[in-house]
Every structure is written in structure tokens, then in C-alpha cells.
Amino acid sequence: MKAHQRLIREEKGQQVNRPVVPLSLCRVEPITREQAEAVILEYEWLGTMPTGYRCAYGLVGPDDEVLGASVFANPPGSNSAALCGEEHRSKVVCLARGACVPWSHEHAPSYQTAVACKMARRDHGWQIFVGYSDERAGEIGTIYQACNWVYLGVARKGGRKVWVLPNGDRLSTRAARSRYPEMKPITMEKMAPLGWSQEQEPDKARYVWFEGSKTDKKRLRRALRYPAQPYPKRRHDYD
Question: Looking at the predicted structure, is the pLDDT value of residue 158 above 70?
Fold first, then answer.
């Protein structure tokens, strides 16, 4: 089974039919939310920007064309925020969305991810990066594996439900309380007139990456509350 995001790239690549931009002509730099959104909405599996948005970095090619986007957001829940204990909570951020246009280089996603995390650490001080792969999209975390992230296994959601709009926007109940403080407690009767429905949040494979000095990385790795596990593999030879 191919990852859905790869299928999107292949399908849209046939439609556009543009030559591949060499990676040597590209750079990674901060981009605006609007620039990131233009890539994410068209080429990312979920097709939405994350809640708790913090910043974005883009793969920028010749003529300043944005060829990819890595979007960082608040970690989704207390367990993710405390991956290395409460004392390191402020160092955690989620790589919530990532995508590249079809005419970017085949290694662009891994290059963009690696450099974006280094820049995010430089600009914001984050050192613990958590990311998820979604089996609904046929994902096993190929990009994370290519970047040597640590695989922590499947994050079980335990039947937790999220609020969803028809356009794909999603909110946890905690995020809904923050957006609609006047509606506490949050209920279906209050949310439905605004277009929200509920669905069960799927289990997702979780990965983590550390940035900083060798000493910092070793210290954070020792503080990790979950054991590393072998990478999941595909049954076939394609992504």
C-alpha cells in the first residue's frame, strides 16, 4: 500500500508535469502561515492546518518559490508534552504537518524536515520534536525513519473523540474549551449548530527527535519516558 501523500504527489505531478527542481538550488527558511497553508492544503494528507499553530519553515527554490512546508504546533495532549518528563515540557513541539510539491526532489521531504527542526531549535529553543504517522493514510513514518527519529510505537487514543468540521478542521475537547470559553461545558448540543461533529481519534505511530549538543541529546534521550522500538516496515517495496 502506497502512502496517500505519495499518491497525491504522483497524481498532481502528472497534472502539472514540471521538471524536478534540484535540491542543490533549494534552501530552507521561515515562511508565513499563508505560504505554508498553500502547500499543506493541497498536498498534505489531512489537508488542514493544525490547531495550536506555532510556526512554519519552507523549502524555497529558485525565484523564491515555496516547494514544501514543515509546520510546527503545540503537542497534542499532556502525554506528548511530557515525553521526557514535566521538567522538559517547555522544550517539546509537534511537527504537525509536512508536505512538498510534486516537482521537488525525491529527498526534499527528509532534507526539509531535518533542517526545519534545526532552525526551530535555533529560533524558538525547542529540543524535543514529536511527530505522528497515520495508518489511515498508509503511512509508517518513512520520512522520520530517513531522518533517524526514534520510534516509540503506537500512541493509543483510548477512544478519545475530537470535534470535526466539514472542511476538515479538527479540535480536541481541550482546544474547543479554549476557542469557545462561553460554551463550557462543551456538548454536542452546543457544537452542532456551529457545524461541528464528533469522531473517534485514530491510533497513530509516534516518533521523537532531539536537537541540541551531544550532551543535551543524551540527557533528553535518558529522560524519555517510553522505550524505543524497531521501525515498522511495509509489506511491499514502495512507500
Answer: no
